[in-house]
Amino acid sequence: MSKFVFIYHAPMTPAEATPPSPEEMEAVMGQWMAWAGKVGENMVDFGTPLAGGVRVTSDGTSPSAREVSGYSIIEAADLEAALELAKDHPHLNMPGGCEIEVHEAQAIPGM
Fold this sequence. Notes:
The protein is α+β, with helices and mostly antiparallel strands. It has a single domain (2-12, 24-104), classed as Dimeric alpha+beta barrel (Alpha-Beta Plaits, 2-Layer Sandwich), CATH 3.30.70. It is 24% helix and 31% strand. The chain is built from two helices and six strands; from the N terminus they run βαββββαβ. Strand 3 (54-57) and strand 4 (60-63) form a beta hairpin.
């Protein structure tokens, strides 16, 4: 089994947007928990929402070029199996054109 990092991209929510109701939040979390249940024991780290990304280079810092809204780490037999899990992820149904990047974690020799 290999580990895969799912990186969630979503557009920033405008400050003037109406926050979701408790019922809407419960429904969204229900979808996420159902997906996590499908992944089962292969869920390494459910992840968390992220905000305020900063890009660091040798020249200094700047705001992140792309909004990363969260991550998860799962185990899967191969990239194809990881992509299959991503295809029905509830993040893809969120408004605004949300996306998921899937990256395979590479082993570091000697570690």
